[in-house]
Specification:
Length: about 325
């Protein structure tokens, strides 16, 4: 069996295991037979409601957010030619956070909160892109520097909002800033966006491989670099905005997952991009399951668990790679 096939096989098994664990584990214990009956519509009302109204939507939300963040991180690392780039490096999450916190400050929730976060993310994206352009073009270094500066500005605004916010709003604001998945409907629009971004990115896999080796080499081999960079920026920004709107600022997934897969040998974008979706979605699904069960009935922000799981895995693979080089 080829190495990509083995990788996808392991990722699919991990994905199915993570989703099944999210359905099985909770404050109310449900055996696998009842889970299957609920999924097929043959369970009694309590079990059906637990699966279809609580656990399944949340598990799919976690998988979608993880997939969007990992895919966005992989695209931005190509676009900026920086292995430390992540979905939040251009300030998208900062704009979304300001929009969401202002909505909370105004007493808004639900669709208004999500809409405010999305508007803030889109505004931050357009602002970075507009300021980074000069003479009709932009460079990766200018885009990265502009994003970092604006991210610092958004951070100052977030600190100001937290300072003036009433105490009864602070807990919800902090949970949102650390990543918070709440029960809701199955996120069909976000799932559709994930599939669309993955499909377009996969079709651009060969030009992306060439761009990752350098702009000069890509141009010499016939790649239209400017349109490709613009497409990458739009795809990554939409993915990040969608993920932040659904779950707040969940850290480390977009940075760690592409690195883990590259260290595991997935360097061809046709392999790396779909693998990022599976691995990122699985990581966040497992982290969210742990976040809502470890200290039940109290829930932890899922961002704490992504850091706890992702960073040790990343360090272990780095050490393994270093050991392989010296042997």
């Amino acid at each position: 069996m080829s190495r990509p096939a083995s990788l996808f096989g392991l990722l699919l098994l991990a994905c199915l295991g993570g989703l099944m664990g999210a359905l099985l584990i909770g404050s109310v214990a449900l055996p696998s037979a009842e889970i299957f009956a609920a999924l097929t519509g043959n369970a009694s009302e309590p079990q059906y409601s637990i699966v279809w109204e609580l656990r399944l939507p949340r598990a799919l939300s976690a998988f979608t957010v993880g997939g969007l963040l990992a895919l966005s991180g992989a695209l931005l690392q190509i676009l900026l030619r920086n292995p430390l780039a992540d979905p939040y490096v251009l300030g998208t999450s900062g704009g979304a956070a300001v929009g969401a916190l202002l909505a909370m400050l105004a007493g808004l929730s639900g669709a208004w909160l999500s809409g405010s976060a999305f508007v803030g993310a889109v505004f931050a994206t357009l602002l970075v892109f507009g300021l980074a352009r000069r003479d009709g073009d932009w460079s990766a270094a200018r885009l990265l520097l502009t994003g970092i500066i604006l991210a610092a500005g958004w951070g100052a605004l977030i600190a100001f909002i937290l300072t003036i916010a009433p105490e009864h709003n602070l807990r919800g604001m902090l949970f949102w800033l650390m990543g918070d998945l709440v029960p809701g409907d199955i996120p069909w629009p976000h799932l559709a966006l994930l599939c669309g971004v993955l499909g377009i990115s996969w079709l651009l896999a060969r030009p992306l491989d060439l761009l990752a080796r350098g702009e000069l080499q890509a141009r010499s081999l016939g790649v239209a670099v400017e349109p490709l960079r613009n497409a990458l920026y739009i795809l990554a920004a939409l993915s990040t905005a969608s993920a932040v709107t659904l779950a707040g600022s969940v850290g480390f997934v977009g940075l760690v997952v592409p690195h883990l897969l590259r260290l595991a040998g997935a360097r061809d974008q046709r392999v790396l991009l779909p693998a990022c979706v599976l691995a990122g979605g699985t990581l966040l699904t497992v982290a969210d399951t742990l976040a809502r069960t470890l200290w039940a009935p109290q829930q932890l922000p899922v961002g704490i668990l992504t850091a706890t799981i992702g960073i040790p895995l990343f360090l272990l693979l780095l050490l393994k790679q270093r050991a392989d080089i010296h042997t």
